[in-house]
């Protein structure tokens, strides 16, 4: 992760107990586990926001597929004349 800095957060007491139990069970520090969880969460959120923005750009550029077209395609799945993806 590189250089580090300190962040203070408030969490419910029960969550802190669970975090401490997990730290004991995994031989990791609670700080390491919290930083790892936060890193994973931030990566997931960054990915989601990027995909939303990509979708918004596609929408503005007219790169869309109608609901009806997708519905027809899905209804054709598993049939002899399955339609190609729209």
Task: Give a description of the structure.
64% of the residues lie in helices and 0% in strands. The radius of gyration is 23 Å and the shape is elongated. It is an all-alpha fold. It has one domain (13-76).
The domain count comes to: 1
Order of helices and strands: HHH
Estimate percent helicity: 55-70%
**Shape assignment:** elongated
Label the structural class.
mainly alpha
Beta-strand residue fraction? under 5%
Strand count, sense and closure of the main sheet?
none
Per DSSP E runs of 2 or more residues, the count of β-strands stands at 0
Which short descriptors sum up this protein?
mainly alpha, 86 residues, 0% strand, single chain
TL;DR?
This protein has helices spanning 13-26, 30-60, 67-76. It is mainly alpha-helical.
Topology of this structure?
Blueprint: H1 13-26, H2 30-60, H3 67-76
